[in-house]
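Lab meeting prep.
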Amino acid sequence: MENFKPDEVTVTVALSACADLGELETREWIQACVRHQKGLYTDLCLRNALINVYAKCGDVKAARRLFDSLQEKDVTTWTSMIAGHALHEQANEALNLFTKMKEARKYSKSSMIVPNDVTFIGVLMSCSHASLVEQGKHHFRSMMEDYGLKPRDPHFGCMVDLLCRANLVKEAFDFVSKMPICTNPVVWRTLLSACGIDGNVELGTQIRQKLMELEPAHVGDSVSLSNIYATKGMWDKKMSVREQIKQRRAPGCSSIEVSGSGISEFVATDDDHPLRSEIYKVLESLVVCMKGSYGYSLKISCLEDC
């Protein structure tokens, strides 16, 4: 292994792994190896991987310096840098770079720098972060009409996020409803979260019903709806949803192994534990101790109702 010299493919894969893991120190070690191996640093795929790992590891300035130093750029180079700016909410930089990308394509007529669907994810994400609603709509239409690209779930998700951030929840709901097929629960949960901020009970109820069809076992959506009811003072509906949650979700359970006593299991709302009385006596003494030391106050009955 002492004479082993990684080629550009090996290093590119290693850098991609560093980007996914956010391993900046490992990236620096790999880059040092690259510098000492002649001819390797000139590979465009490898440089693209470096831009990607710089950006994902938080060093956007280093990514941009490397990007600006490159004479040759392909669609991956441009996309990696646009995505890097978008990832760190540098919307203006990302959108300005996208404009330069289109200009570079116009002057060079090169098929190597035609924006692809990944490019538009970065563009739409930037519009969302900057609350540029009309510009985001323009780019969404452009990717279909000018570039013949079919939107995927990430594009729809960016558009929903863009509209929700602008407090256009109803428009976001209509947008999702007109999508060919949307089975991505993340998109619907973005809408549900926006309904919570907006206090839109009617839409929240519809969206939660849709989520129950997609992921019936996910009780978090019902919790979100109950919170929407609470913000509007609809306590009866909130309690009704909470009761549904209790029926659908198994009670919380903890277990502990005590030396010589085997394993004891504790289940929420369990009144049948053989040591229930002893457990609550210990709990009461702990509460008294905490109250005396820290001024902490807790009613045991609250725990019994959990």
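Slide two material, second protein:
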Amino acid sequence: MSNKFLFGCIYIPPENSKYSSEEAFTEIEEELLFFSHDINNIALVSDFNSRTGHMSDIVEIDENLFDMLDIVNASEIMNENTLCVNNFIKKGIPLERYNEDKIIVNNYGRKLIELCKRCSLCFANGRLHQDKFIGKNTCKDASLVDYLILSPDMFDLVMEFEIFDFDPTLSDVHNQMHFSLCITHKNYTDQQNKKNNTYVRWNTNKAHEFTQVLSDDTDALNLIKHTLENFQTESVTPLQANDLISELGNVLLDTASTAFGPAGKQRQRSTQNKPWFKKECKIMRDEFHRARRK
């Protein structure tokens, strides 16, 4: 995973105001494509003035359309979509969207949904933490127009997400949106490299040897025991929890390497984000989405 991040704080004027622009979403998409060339971690946040109801932000792949339009890199696109869906299922993140503002969908809402589908972005609202299965309204307690929109890789980094009750000292009509990310360059990168670069296949026939090696490693066991004894669950931070899990994982991986043999290497995915996505590909993608709407 790339350790680069792209954050966008966005305000789009209401669609019926004199400041509205039909090109706003096109401009955002073009900026995303320009700045996210080698970035997998993307977050867009703030007031989109878009009411999206329960419209899905996940692309439903129709393989027949790829053949009809003769789209290149079809397998890569399908794999990317499958990885996103599988990651949501694995993490217990709802695929369907939850939204208290479920009646009205405006034109901007449809444009925002299409933007998310084209750029492989998904809504955090209604999916994470305190707002999971809710999708709380953010404006006048009547509509949801403020969003946190993330690339799939970013969902693992969100430690908190909540829409607070309305506070007139902070805004005239909007609720406060609160979220936090856990990003520690050294620890996070080390964990990802450990996870992506090495593996040890479990050998049932050597389970006893695994247990014996672990029992003999008194230094590692004492370290874990000391860490657990001093672990304050009432005041633990996400970083402390991640460090503990990392230590436990490293001990088990080292034990397995000793008992079963050295760790092997896994092939890494490229960290470049769609380097093939050029003008010709954009044209073909637009044709694909137009065909889907027919």
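Talking points for slide two:
The first helix runs from residue 24 to 35.
The radius of gyration is 23 Å.
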